[in-house]
Amino acid sequence: MATHEATALVPPGVGLHARPAALFVQRAGAFSSTIRLTCGERSADGKSILGVLQLGASAGSQVTIHAEGDDAHAAAEALATFIREIA
Question: H/E/C letters for each residue in 4-36?
C-alpha cells in the first residue's frame, strides 16, 4: 500500500475552523486513502470534522497530511494545496 506525506502552512488570517475544516473533510472523503492530519503534537483523522477542528490549526501553523492507500500521493498533495490556498 502506498503512503505519501505533504506539509502546508495555514495562510495568515485563516485557520482550520468550521467552514474550512468542513471543506477539508469533504475533499478528504473523495479519496479512498486513509488521511491523518498532524499539527504540532496533535493528530487527527482527516475525514473527521471533529478531529480536524480539535487540531486547533490556526494561521501560520504547519500541518502535515499523511495519506495511506492507492491514491495516497494525489490525496496528500491535493489536500496540502487546499490548505495553502484557503482564503
Answer: EEEEEECCCCCCCCHHHHHHHHHHHHCCCCEEE
Catalytic residue among 4, 17, 66, 73: 17
Q: Which CATH number fits domain 3-84: 3.40.50.410, 3.30.450.20, 2.70.150.10, 3.30.1340.10?
A: 3.30.1340.10
Confirm whether 17 is a catalytic residue: yes
Contact 33, 67 (CB under 8 A): yes
For the chain, what are the domain ranges? 3-84
The C-alpha atoms of residue 56 and residue 87 are separated, in whole angstroms, by 17
Q: pTM value?
A: 0.94
Look at residue 14 in the predicted model and tell me its pLDDT: 87
